[in-house]
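dude i think i finally got it to work??
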Amino acid sequence: MALELGMITIDCTNPQELAGFWTAALDVTVAGDYGTFVILARPSGGGPALAFQQVPEPRTGKNRVHVDFSTADPEAEVRRLVALGAEEQARHRQPGVAWTVLADPEGNEFCVAEAGGH
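look at this
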């Protein structure tokens, strides 16, 4: 038996609004909107789909799990994501890798690094 990562689900207070940010960020469409649960189409480059599940409480504290993205031009992507509504949280550098921590409009953290890094 083998497991395959099929979807990452993010808790949020407004799934449709958060899906709007992420469809623009990832250049994907909504695959299914079930009111309290929204699933995005898988990215064309592969990888798992993202989904957003409505919960009654707002996010508090640090995420226990977050999504990492990589790109050939992380600086341009960070600027683009901030323009879409993300908030830059921190920048980190370790030998051989650098990444930026951002938060989506509901405060869920994610990272953007150079392709081949983080």
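The chain has two domains: 8-56, 66-118.
im so relieved honestly
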